[in-house]
Amino acid sequence: MLAIVKRTEQEFADWVSTELGFITTIGRYQDEPIKLEAYQLEALATPARYRCIEKARQVGFSWLFSAEAIARAHLREAHTSVFVSYALSDSKEKIAYCEQLHEELPLAYQKKRVVDSKLEIAFQSNGAAKRISRIISSPSKAPRGKKGDILLDELAHYPFDREVYQGSTALILRAGGQLTVCSSPLGRRGAFWEIARQEVRPYPAYWRQRVPWFLCSFFCTDVRRAAKEAPAMPTEERVERFGTKGIKDQFASLLLEEFQQEFEVVYCDEAQSYFPYELILPCTDDELVLAEDFASFGEVRGRLVAGFDVGRKRDLSELAVFEEVDGRKLCRMLRSYDRVPFAAQEADLRSMLNMLPVARLSIDQSGLGMHLAENLGREFPQVVPENFTNESKEMWAVDFKLLLQRRDVVLPRDRELVAQIHSIRKHVTPSGRTSFDAERDSRGHADRFWAVALACRKERGPQPGDVVEVGVRIIG
After folding, report:
1. CA-based angle 117:165:74, to the nearest 5?
2. Considering only CA atoms, which of 342, 316, 341 is closest in space to residue 417?
3. Of 33, 81, 252, 262, which has the highest C-beta tally within 10 A?
4. How do beta strands 328-337 and 317-325 pair?
5. Taking the mean position of all CA atoms in its chain, how far away is CA 331?
6. Quick one: average pLDDT of 297-308?
7. Rounded CA gap, 177 and 180, in Å?
8. What does the alpha-carbon distance between residue 7 and residue 163 come to, in Å, rounded to a whole number?
């Protein structure tokens, strides 16, 4: 905890004129005084023009940089801060943080708000010149033309990370701004990995910080002790020794590799995945809006195809619906069925087939899905039963990889979906056969991916509902 006593009015004024003093002395959030973690204090205190922060998820940097931007907007006559985020929802969240922080400032310190939107907030100075300070937030695009401080938040997860980084570096020079790259890892690839790990070439201008979960008091029961002892422990031991219930639950619900990447700043090996991030991320669209239910599906301009992976005892059933438009497959709906009775799942699929013009619904008929596929198939000719074998899964995985390579598929920018696609591994069995699958975790065997693969599979031979053409040759 920060505890600084100022003995005179001038000392107090000097302290409040610093970003750290402004945030911790007069700042409040949700009617509470602001208390910062040690790593947050370090990030605020560094004067470096370039900051590189490797971090676990949910350790408070998005909020911290929002507070930093508010402080600079109020302490300087005119200042611009630009946030670039992984997704549109993250961009809006930072502006929401800024609005809340501004609202809770004492009136004597508040600047007048003159722009207030979901992606920008601006303040007018109290001086005679009435100069403007701006905080701008946008999703994973290079902030060209916007000079000032630039934060690239979750840079490793951007679809076009190099373009965004290259478009950001020059913007801080003329404005005398600060460039911050901050992210949790996403494999041994991309601009952020190169800057953070320097295995390709050095990046000497950067001040560096690494923040795993056990440095955060929200996740760790004894931060001071964990900072000394936890780095030498295996993951399982340090989670058991220092983890709160929240982090223990996360550890139990993720594969070891996933937990280490999300919470322990470990860069997992990209070579093991059949679908590398470079293939997946460019096919995601942050502006893609998925239908929440069949009744509000909206206009259908193309051909609808769907895939349904039937959950086993411990797995989810997953539905994926895509629309084929101009040769591209556009994701329109993803729906999970968690411990939903099979009769209810069947009823829901029947509703979809009655309400939407689905041209093909591919259903996993292996095991528990057999009766579901048979029951629906008797009533709806567009239902296609599919057998999950090594040969069929290889065919579907290859089909989907070709779509990604050609960028003929559009997916929502969803971290869970990206993780499931990336989790697929290609193995060779002892008998020499090829196998495609993911390790089991609390969510199953990448069930959502297989639903997507079923929907997007290449159609070979006559399809349900096709009109059969008969050619006749007249002799004589």
Report:
1. 40
2. 316
3. 81
4. antiparallel
5. 17
6. 94
7. 10
8. 50
Whole-angstrom Cα distance, residue 315 to residue 132?
A: 53
Distance CA 198, CA 180 (A): 16
Taking a C-beta distance cutoff of 8 angstroms, is the pair 173, 144 a contact? no
Residue 357 is classified by DSSP as -
Q: Is the sign of the CA dihedral 360, 366, 369, 374 positive or negative?
A: positive
The whole-angstrom separation of Cα 414 and Cα 35 is 31
Residues 160-203: tens digit of each pLDDT: 999 999 888 877 776 678 999 999 999 888 999 999 999 989 99
Measured between alpha carbons, how far is 222 from 231 in angstroms, rounded to an integer? 14
Domain spans of the chain?
9-211, 223-272, 277-456
**What is the H or E stretch that residue 115 is in?**
strand 112-116
Instruction: Examine domains 9-211 and 277-456 and report if their fold is the same.
Output: no
d(CA 156, CA 263): 14
- Please tell me the distance from the alpha carbon of residue 105 to that of residue 98, in angstroms, as a whole number: 11
Class assignment of domain 277-456? alpha beta
Show the 3-state SS of 379-403.
HCCCEEEECCCHHHHHHHHHHHHHH
At residue 5, does pLDDT exceed 70? no
Tokens encoding 226: 């964990």
Please give the structure tokens belonging to residue 90. Answer: 């993250």
